[in-house]
Design brief:
With 209 residues, the chain is an alpha+beta fold. Helices cover 34% and strands 20% of the residues. The protein folds into 2 domains: 76 residues, no CATH class; 107 residues, no CATH class. It contains 4 helices and 7 strands, in the order ααααβββββββ. A hairpin with an 8-residue loop joins β1 and β2. It is elongated.
């Protein structure tokens, strides 16, 4: 059997196992399907790396299994869990270096909460990161050039004849700017809702990170 015929037979056999498990996958789409499985497992591992209740072993074994299967099928390699976490560790240094470099203002808009509808410019790194040729760069989930990923903005509340209350509301940046070039910010999910009648407090500085 020629190498081409053998590879076709292996792809057909591997796709058949997905079908046997109730997930139909054409042999010619198996490459993309395996890449998608590896990407989802890698993202889950990165997002929940410090959670002790997360099934770390299962995801490590899944990534290793996909990498092994792709090697047998002579497809391009996908990362193992060790490679994914090592890559994430390196990104902290990459991100810090970019943050210490030149900055540029980015227009941002707040889409909910006390700052809803307000447009302002926020400084962020001028250089994109990670580099465009990083094979795992698509896993960064927002670690690209742009305004701060999260910003804390001051608020106050209370009627004119009441003792005012002071606090802050945290906003999280969207992954990319909208068509008009404005970076969207929404209040962080899971944070306590601001008090009724809360409004921007322009007398105090904001915090960003």
């Amino acid at each position: 059997m020629s190498t081409t015929h053998r590879r076709s037979a292996l792809l057909l056999a591997a796709a058949g196992q997905f079908t046997r498990g109730g997930e139909h996958t054409d042999p010619e789409m198996l490459d993309a399907h395996l890449v998608d499985i590896a990407d989802k497992a890698a993202r889950a591992l990165l997002n929940h790396r410090v959670r002790c209740t997360f099934p770390h072993t299962t995801h490590r074994e899944l990534l290793a299994t996909v990498a092994a299967l792709r090697a047998v099928l002579d497809l391009s390699p996908t990362p193992t869990a060790g490679e994914v976490t090592a890559w994430q560790d390196r990104q902290y240094a990459v991100r810090a270096k970019a943050a210490e470099g030149p900055t540029t203002p980015y227009p941002a808009v707040f889409t909910d909460g006390p700052y809803c509808g307000i447009v302002m410019k926020l400084d962020g790194p001028a250089s994109a990161y990670p580099s465009a040729d990083d094979p795992l760069g698509h896993l960064t989930d927002g670690w690209i050039a742009g305004p701060p990923s999260t910003i804390s903005l001051p608020i106050n509340w209370g009627a004119d004849d009441e003792l005012p209350g002071y606090g802050a509301v945290r906003y999280k940046r969207g992954y990319a700017p909208a068509a008009e070039g404005l970076w969207p910010y929404r209040m962080r999910t899971g944070d306590p809702a601001p008090p009724a009648g809360a409004r921007p407090d322009t007398s105090r500085p904001s915090g960003r990170y």
